[in-house]
């Protein structure tokens, strides 16, 4: 779970990710579950950082200069993503890795703020 604040109007975006398999200089090839929200009011759930494999996308109502709470819950292969407590997508994801890193980031190195970052295991 993480609170996010996008500072770039229209083109800004942030992500919260789980089960990420790569970092450092290999990060462009990272796979996992990435929950993106964008300042243009859309969201996307992908299985890779570059967004090549899209699981879900749609309208989120997000914009710049407001705080939002993003959350990803994973139980086995069942994934649920929420925005401010509202489920945007729930589905089954088949990944090679059953564990990995948790990550936060931006769409293209623009300014954004992150707060109250928390990882909870059950």
TrEMBL record:
InterPro entries in the cross-refs: GH59_C (IPR049162), Glyco_hydro_59 (IPR001286)
Coiled coil: none
Domain Glycosyl hydrolase family 59 C-terminal lectin: 2-121
GO annotation, biological process: galactosylceramide catabolic process
Cellular component, GO, one term: lysosome
Domain of life: Eukaryota
One MF term in the entry's GO annotations: galactosylceramidase activity
Annotated protein name in UniProt: Galactocerebrosidase
Natural source organism: Austrofundulus limnaeus (Annual killifish)
Lineage: Eukaryota, Metazoa, Chordata, Craniata, Vertebrata
